[in-house]
Design goal:
377 residues; alpha+beta; Thrombin, subunit H; six-stranded mixed β-sheet; 26 strands; 21% helix; 40% strand; globular
């Protein structure tokens, strides 16, 4: 595997982490600020610098390259596989009346199945229901192929996100990358570091990813009481106080970020599904706890590997970035410490992370986690 990595800050020249060289048919991952991806001259600059066929674009809430976290930049990783292959399919949520489950099913039907080893998802992040998308993908997989990936970001603006394959980045797009090869080894993990506080309550009314009532009370009203003065800073403040949700009949909880609020009906729109009768609790975190969570995620991803990874795809949550603020690179450094300096690292800050819990291959949508996908040939 050959990997060429470069980044470009606004109005600056390209900077390479490795020697620039011509690659043969690489997978090119372009993670960039949404405002940058909307400029035709920026897209032209990327295509001129990386004149390859398989360009995948995704907007971010922060760009990760090596142990660095950038804002308002473009980071590019061009990956030439020696023994393995990949296939890429895309579809748009607008083609399916905003039905993410149908979109997931459609994408999985398109991807070649023979020798499929792993699926990596790069999804629109502002209105695609990530839980439903995963469910649609897994309808056909039946636990045979693991999925990891993330939802695109837009800093803390939450206006719109962009993604694409080959085409110029656009709204509503979901990109599915399939990896194939006998010698390919892919491991993954997801870990948070947030802690619950306050009483455990029950979700009494919800619909998909919209939460209406907790313990029979309007959800937003109850949430605001917990936030106190910080309620005036909603919806941004909600990134610092996500919900810990344990669905009925399940032992493992998932964290759910609140993406938006509706003062009229006192509801909250979350990044993934919040089923009725699930237990729910407020969460908070410290900088040290988040950095330690990233370290835990890296250890879990390395746990049963046979070969050392060559590439690490990191998807971390925008909420973690906001809590860590100036110290945000510490969580990337914690990961690098575990996986090794020689591993090429790229990724982005997201509106939702996708990975199975460590002991199975059924994927879950997570929020507020550090999610790793480690690849070697």
């Amino acid at each position: 595997m050959k990997i060429i990595q470069a980044y470009k800050k606004k109005n600056e020249n390209w900077q390479y982490l490795t020697n620039k060289e011509k690659l043969k048919n690489p997978l090119v991952l372009v993670f960039a600020n949404r405002m940058q991806l909307e400029l035709p001259e920026v897209i032209d600059a990327i295509r001129n610098e990386f004149p390859y066929e398989h360009l995948v674009f995704g907007s971010t809430a922060g760009e990760i390259l090596d142990a660095n976290v950038f804002d308002d930049s473009i980071v590019v990783s061009a990956i030439e596989f020696e023994k393995s292959t990949f296939a890429i399919k895309t579809d748009n949520i607008f083609n399916h009346n905003k039905d993410a489950n149908a979109l997931g099913e459609s994408l999985y039907q398109q991807i070649p199945k023979e020798n499929l080893k792993h699926l990596f998802v790069l999804s629109e992040g502002s209105f695609v229901n990530g839980s439903s998308l995963i469910e649609g993908l897994e309808n056909g997989i039946q636990n045979k192929v693991p999925i990891s990936g993330g939802m695109c970001g837009d800093d803390a603006k939450f206006e719109k996100t962009l993604a694409s394959y080959k085409e110029n980045p656009k709204e509503g797009e979901v990109v599915l990358i399939g990896f194939y090869g006998e010698t390919l080894e892919i491991s993954f993990s997801s870990f948070g570091g947030w802690s619950s506080f306050g009483p455990e309550r029950i979700i009494t009314r919800s619909e998909a990813n919209v939460l209406y009532e907790i313990d029979g009370q309007p959800a937003l009203d109850l949430y605001k009481k917990y936030l106190g003065d910080k309620a005036n800073e909603l919806p941004q403040a909600s990134l610092l106080y996500p919900l810990n949700v344990t669905p009925e009949g399940k032992s493992q909880a998932v964290v759910r970020t609140i993406l938006n609020i509706n003062n009229e009906d006192q509801s909250m729109i979350l990044a993934g599904e919040v089923p009725e009768n699930a237990k729910v609790q407020l969460m908070m975190a410290s900088v040290d706890a988040i950095a330690e969570g990233a370290s835990q995620a890296a250890m879990l991803a390395m746990q049963n590997r046979i070969n050392h990874p060559q590439l690490a795809l990191l998807v971390s949550c925008v909420g973690r970035k906001l809590v860590m603020n100036q110290r945000v690179e510490e969580e990337i450094e914690q990961v690098q410490e575990i996986i090794g300096n020689e591993v090429a690292i790229t990724g982005f800050y997201s509106y939702g992370e996708m990975a199975p819990f460590s002991e199975n291959t059924f994927c879950e949508l997570h929020n507020q986690t550090m999610t790793l996908t480690l690849i070697s040939e």
